[in-house]
Design brief:
By secondary structure, this protein is an alpha/beta fold. Helix content is 41%, strand content 19%. The protein has a seven-stranded mixed beta sheet with strand order 1-3-2-4-5-6-12, with helices on both faces. The longest helix has 18 residues, at 267-284. It is elongated, with a radius of gyration of 20 Å.
Length: 315
């Protein structure tokens, strides 16, 4: 343990790059809130919900932007442990790469709640709160079957390799579509959850096809919106495009016809639930009734836009 602490102290200066919402004081509980990257609207929304719930619960926070880098997020976690945070609520950038840092926190007596992305290899995590991403992927598959009862040719834009939501959403999609050979995934390729890559990958795929696919299904909205841009640029208007995350921009696109659907996984509610569990633990010593809390995603189309968590953010 002594060696571990010494190694951690070498990274402690990284905390200077964190946003400290309030100074650490003995009488005040302080929670590190860490997300993979504030360059993604999904995680901006998640962080906002974490900060709002922490304020409502009367705890201070330190905000960590992982900047899409496991080493950066690792350094932030280790620095926060050295600084003496009371708990860590984290959406890990990579479930494998972040496991050692989360293990370090647990071994140093700092409770950890994970959101959205579950880390299975670390014993002692207080709780995980997320969406059932397999069910979310299945919802995409069921919608495709509903829209195309006679079969479809499908392009599948996968998320970032190593990210558990990408793995689980892809699994759910295949769970449904692989049961019926009328549904053919003609191309599947990662676009790393990024809009520019969704655009570039879709452009490349469409350029190599004699006829457009019936469906482009994406593991997040950014890739779906990039794909929609590529489809528009080629003057194709009959392709069904399905995203995942129910971002406000995606909801507007569903409303206006640019996207057919997106999957709502309630990230704000995930974040608020995770923070409530953490605060109840650090203030009252309470253990969560369930170690894994999963919200059930649903498909959002024009017909049920009112079910979307962020509908109020649309212009």
């Amino acid at each position: 343990m002594h060696h571990l602490t010494r190694r951690m102290l070498m990274t402690s200066t990284v905390v200077l790059g964190l946003s400290l919402a309030a100074p650490l004081q003995a009488q005040e509980k302080t929670i590190l809130t860490s997300v993979p990257s504030l360059g993604f609207p999904f995680f901006v929304h998640m962080m906002k919900a974490l900060q709002e719930e922490a304020a409502a619960q009367g705890v201070a926070t330190i905000e960590s932007d992982g900047q899409n880098s496991a080493p950066k997020q690792t350094a932030d976690v280790e620095a926060a442990v050295v600084q003496g945070v009371d708990g860590i609520v984290i959406s890990p950038s990579d479930v494998n790469a972040m496991a050692p840092a989360i293990q370090t926190a647990v071994e140093n007596g700092v409770p950890v709640v994970t959101i959205d992305r579950r880390v299975d290899g670390v014993p002692g995590i207080l709780a995980h709160v997320g969406a059932d991403n397999v069910i979310g992927g299945e919802a995409q598959g069921h919608l495709i079957m509903e829209l195309f009862p006679d079969g479809a040719k499908i392009v599948n834009l996968q998320g970032q390799p190593g990210a558990s939501p990408a793995i689980d959403r892809n699994k759910g999609l295949h769970n449904v579509l692989d049961q019926d050979d009328k549904y053919e995934i003609v191309v599947e390729q990662t676009a790393n959850f990024a809009r520019d890559q969704g655009l570039a990958v879709t452009e490349s795929i469409l350029a190599g096809m004699d006829t457009p696919p019936d469906v482009i299904v994406a593991a997040n909205d950014d890739m779906a919106l990039g794909a929609a841009e590529a489809v528009r640029a080629r003057g194709i208007d009959e392709v069904v495009i399905i995203g995942f995350d129910a971002l406000p921009e995606a909801l507007a696109a569903v409303r206006d016809g640019g996207l057919t659907a997106t999957i709502e996984q309630f990230p704000g509610e995930q974040s608020r639930t995770a923070m409530r569990l953490m605060v109840d633990h650090v203030k009252n010593g309470a253990k969560p009734m369930e170690e894994v809390v999963l919200l059930q995603p649903i498909a959002i189309t024009k017909d049920n836009l009112d079910k979307a968590e962020r509908l109020g953010e649309l212009n």
